[in-house]
Amino acid sequence: MSADLSDLESAGAARIGGAATLEELRAVEAEVLGKRSALADMTQRLRELDGDERRKRGQEINEIRARLQAAADARRTEVEEAERSARLGAEGMDLTEVLPGHGRGHLHLVTQTQAELEDVFLGMGFLVAEGPEVESDWNNFEALNMPPAHPARGMWDTLYVRLNEPESTMLRTHTSPVQIRVMQSQPPPIYIVAPGRCYRRDTPDARHLPTFHQIEGLVVDHGITFGDLAGTIETFTTAYFGPAIHSRLRPSYFPFTEPSAEFEVTCAVCKGEGCRTCSQTGWIELGGCGMVDPNVFTAVGIDPEEWTGFAFGFGIDRCAQVRHGIPDMRVLTENDIRFLEQF
Ligand code: PHE
After folding, report:
1. Domain range summary for the chain, segments of one domain joined by +
2. 315 lines ligand 1 (CB under 6 A)
3. Which end of the chain is more exposed for a tag (fewer CB within 10 A), N or C?
């Protein structure tokens, strides 16, 4: 009878150790330790024995049951761990994977364009500044000479953020708030460009994206004139687009500059002939510019009697579009590998 028991134990232990999945283990456990197991059967048959013998056998059976149960519990932990790592392995992404012919990926065209634009301005003696994409009403509008309810606020279709007072916090509609931040954090002279992402409640089309990028420029120094502004824009255009692209300034209006101008370049898609991309005008608007309005200087505590300056802000995505003759800007956000690979 003892020999039977130890055979039973080693057979049960082998079955438990051999269970490869949780499901298998559950079945084996029922077979080895359950109500219909040989062990249960032996417990039943203890009744046939008497006194001492019964107690001794009963104790042996209990010990075996406990050891087998411990073995099953240990096995469960092992199988669970194995199943978990198998699952992780199957679900995981190999981030080191290299697709033949694709290399390891590269910077997006817009990121490349931003870096090149920064380089052009660094070469002209500007420093790069940055600001947050979520802005206060004061930085995005009020300090830029647009008091609450100023009609010019309508020039920017604004996406507000639910924070603090209603309409007090927004996704910045342009990079101009960085002008305010820079002027508040350092005294003139100032020569900075500020690239970054902007947001407007706009419907995407060939020349517009609701999420786009601008690069802002700000110069504050003694005796800065509109001639300095025009010269800076001209130098930048030739440096970035090359001699085939021409630029022009047209009178315009911005609350934070006076006088203000719009800055346009030859449409690279039709070379100025007129096409769908430029709405048949032959020109593409890159952005706005002008002489810093004295009210803006006053808002940030710079004396407008002593300092003058100019500012500009234009679209980085538009620059990429013009430089590479991209008919429709929406391809910049579609992540079509056939487009991205070309740059
Ligand atoms: N912030 C203006 C815009 O987004 C552009 C601009 C910048 C105009 C600086 C003048 C001076 O439309």
Report:
1. 2-91, 109-340
2. no
3. N
Does pLDDT of 94 surpass 80?
Answer: no
Q: Which residues pair with 205 in a beta bridge?
A: 208
Give the Å distance between the CA of 330 and the centre of ligand 1. 22
- Strands 190-199 and 211-221, by their bridges, are antiparallel
- How far away, in angstroms, is 257 Cα from ligand 1 center? 8
Residue 253 CA to ligand 1 center (angstroms) comes to 9
Distance CA 299, CA 183 (A): 10
In angstroms, rounded to a whole number, what is the distance separating the alpha carbons of residues 216 and 210? 18
Res. 277: pLDDT tops 70: yes
Partners of 264 in beta bridges: 248, 285
- Res 101 pLDDT > 80: no
Q: What angle do CA 235, 226, 146 make, to 5 degrees?
A: 110
> Nearest residue CA, atom 9 of ligand 1?
312
Q: What residue type is assigned to position 174 of the chain?
A: H
- Say if residue 189 is preceded by a cis peptide, omega within 30 of 0: yes
Provide mean pLDDT across the span 206-233: 96
Class of domain 109-340: alpha beta
* CA separation for the pair 109, 127 (Å, rounded): 22
Tell me what the mean pLDDT of segment 255-277 comes to.
93
Measure the CA–CA gap between 303 and 314, rounded to whole angstroms. Answer: 27
State how beta strands 169-171 and 134-136 pair. Answer: antiparallel
User: What is the C-alpha separation between 270 and 285, in angstroms, rounded?
Assistant: 15
Taking the C-alpha atoms of residue 14 and residue 324, their distance in angstroms, rounded to an integer, is: 70
Can you tell me the mean pLDDT for 221-237?
95
User: Tokens representing 40?
Assistant: 């249960």
β-strand pairing of 247-254 with 169-171: unpaired
Average pLDDT (214-223) is 98
Residue 134 near residue 172 (C-beta atoms within 8 A) = yes
| Diameter over CA atoms, the chain | 117
Residue 46 per-residue DSSP state: G
The reported pTM is 0.71
Could you give phi then psi for residue 284, rounded to 5 degrees? -120, 130
Answer yes or no: is the C-beta of 12 below 6 A from any ligand 1 atom: no
Q: Tell me the C-alpha distance between 6 and 3, whole Å.
A: 5
